[in-house]
Write a structure and sequence with these properties.
150 residues; alpha+beta; six-stranded antiparallel sheet; 3 helices; 17% helix; globular
């Protein structure tokens, strides 16, 4: 299975690496409350993107087979996050995730002369059989703790 998509190939994007963090380390209380609600969702096999449809967030769900859905606020707004997920963080697919525990990736990249970063909250969800069904990906750039100590 090819997890990448040709529409997410960007020659001008230079991936500079990613670090893994616990969401509580860097996310503000608004995101942590949404994460708590998400963990208590009635249907654990569903991505439930509505829990993170907050002002100044972007999100989408991606299944184990690479199919995407539930874009917030829309697909175009999620282009960079989806590119980072498909082409760099999980180039071989999300099945490399070793648990269903939410995690936060700080992905650093450069486009042309601009160095920037994306804070991507990755919330895996199971299939009925308990395998990895997919993950909800939420960009929380604007929902970080003021005291995160970067």
């Amino acid at each position: 299975m090819d997890f990448s998509k040709s529409t997410f190939s960007l020659a001008d994007l230079i991936f500079q690496g990613a670090t893994l963090h616990e969401p509580a380390e860097l996310c503000n209380d608004t995101v942590l409350a949404a994460l708590s609600d998400w963990r208590r969702r009635a249907e654990p096999t569903a991505p439930l993107s509505t829990a993170f449809q907050l002002e100044d967030t972007r999100s989408f769900a991606i299944r184990y087979d690479g199919e995407t859905s539930e874009y917030w606020p829309d697909e175009d707004s999620n282009w960079l996050g989806e590119c980072l997920i498909r082409e760099f963080l999980f180039r071989d697919g999300i099945c490399v995730l070793d648990s269903l525990e939410p995690r936060l990736y700080l992905a650093k990249y450069k486009i042309e002369a601009v160095i920037d970063r994306e804070y991507l909250l990755v919330c895996p969800y199971p299939t009925e059989a308990g395998n990895l069904g997919g993950t909800l990906v939420v960009c929380v750039n604007r929902h970080l703790r003021a005291d995160r100590g970067e």
